[in-house]
Amino acid sequence: MKKLSVSSFAVLVLALLIAVGSRSFLGPCVHEDGSFGACHWAGQAMFGLGLLMMLQSAFALLWRDRKVRAGILAATAMTAVLGCFVPGPLISLCGMATMRCRAVMQPAMILLCLLAALTAAAGCAAELRRSRAES
Amino acid sequence: MNLRSLAWKNLIRRPGRTLALILLTALLSLSVFGGSVVVGSLRQGLDSLESRLGADIIVVPASAQSKVSFKNMLLQGTTGAFYMDPENLERVREVDGVEIAAPQVFLASLKADCCSVKIQVIGFDPETDFIVQPWIEESYTKELGDLDVVVGSKVEADVGDIIRIYDERCKVVGRLAATGTGLDTAVYCNLDSMKTLLKAAEAKGISHKVTSDDSDDQISAIYVKVKDGCDIGAVNSKIQGHTRKCTAVRTKSMLTDVSSSLSGISGTITTLIGAIWALALVILLIAFAMIANERKREFAVLRLIGTSRRMLSGMILKESAMCGLAGGLLGVIAASAIVFPFTTLIETSLKLPYLRPSIPDMILLGLLAVLASVVVGSLASSYASFRLSRVDPGTVLREGN
Fold it and tell me: Does any CB of chain B come closer than 8 Å to the CB of residue A94?
């Protein structure tokens, strides 16, 4: 049996943090009157991307063929790069830098997505190298 | 094979040990770089507050101290609105020793559409103001027109944008440079625009009048500059006695409070850094002693094939310097990933003025942190290298250790 991919597992953990964090401790601003600001939708999008990355990394973790794993990890890396642009450039946030969405959600999501992208890209390269070595 | 490549190969051969050493030294540079940036930013923030509060005395309504702390407004950007009789401005100007007295009017907006949060609006008189006007002139040199506003660096609105305050459309004509204080979250306009906004607020049922007449002139604070050579304390007392329902606050005492809070935080951070360094140094010493014990046979063989003591010492020092360099760089990168993106969070948590040092200063701090990691790593390994270089190959190999 082939070894489980460490990078896929790391990406799975990061994706879990993105998905859970965007709905809780790293989430957007909470308004007292229950209304939603623009940042709420950025949080929702990050939740969706987090779930997608979790699925992708879970597939990469379970799949036996190294080339397929590399392909899935490459797709995960690109999803993570997309995630870096969601809070702010693609979906606008609240207008005050001191607000939670800008002070907490945006930097945390960018940091987690960057880490996930780098880990997935490194994992993809490692899988391709091993695949070549094995064949 | 030369010594440098041998040291490199030794590190590669034992990835677990190398990773542990790199992580330990990374902890050192992370603490020193992260801590220095935070302490430096606090000091820079205090300097910025000092230069922005160019007044010697600030006169606020007595109620301001209880309604919303004026200091919180300046430091944390808490919104607040309090008003006093405009006659107090003339009374302050009449006080002997007062050089300039400039009024400001505060208004806390309802949730502005730009940010779904209350913002502080500050009205000032461009003719007499010596606090906001010089700061605005750094980014906007024209005269502020009717309902023209200049926004602080933390208000996410660009020049040309329209922000609604009490349903009045205000045009953003400039953005101010960051000060690291609560002033960064405010919006600034002239007194005519402020009168329009106060009327709009009143139309929405938010009254700000302190006098029974229909006068629109309300003021929230008076910034006072004392004539050179006059005793600020004496002028402060005279103002206190000359005005009604007002409190005259010396800015120096306000800054002293901030400064003492800053000293407390700086002290705590410095102690923490010291503790981390002491702990990491002890762990590194133990780690290198254990490594020295483990590698006795390896060094005995190297001695037997003709490697000099000096070369062996040099090899261990090179190994530790390489780990220190890698760890130092990793620590600086990790600290940067924590401290820089979360600047606003750190600032709001500390509740003190916080302004990042300049980029050259931060690069210098980063280089010093890396250098410190390399030096500490090398120092910690120096005893081990001394012991290993003095190994008697015959005894070690005979013992089978």
Answer: yes
ipTM of the complex: 0.84
Spatial distance between the Cα atoms of B206 and B116, rounded to a whole number of angstroms: 18
Chain A CB contacts of B348 below 8 Å: 98, 103
Say how many CB pairs under 8 Å bridge A and B: 56
Asked if residues B221 and B62 have their Cβ atoms less than 8 Å apart, the reply is no
List the one residue out of B268, B100, B107 whose CA is nearest residue B193. Answer: B107
Which residues are registered as beta bridge partners of B249? B58
Closest residue in chain A to residue B154, using alpha carbons only: A97
**Of A67, A64, A57, the residue nearest A128 (C-alpha):** A67
Any CB–CB contact under 8 A between B353 and chain A?
Answer: no
Is a pLDDT exceeding 70 seen at residue B207?
no
**Residue B74 C-alpha from the chain's centroid:** 15
- In whole angstroms, what is the distance from residue B7 CA to residue B319 CA? 5
Q: How long a stretch of residues is chain B? A: 401
Tokens of B270: 């410095």
- A65 near B CB under 8 A: no
pTM above 0.90, yes or no: no
Interval B253-270: pLDDT, tens: 777 777 788 888 888 888
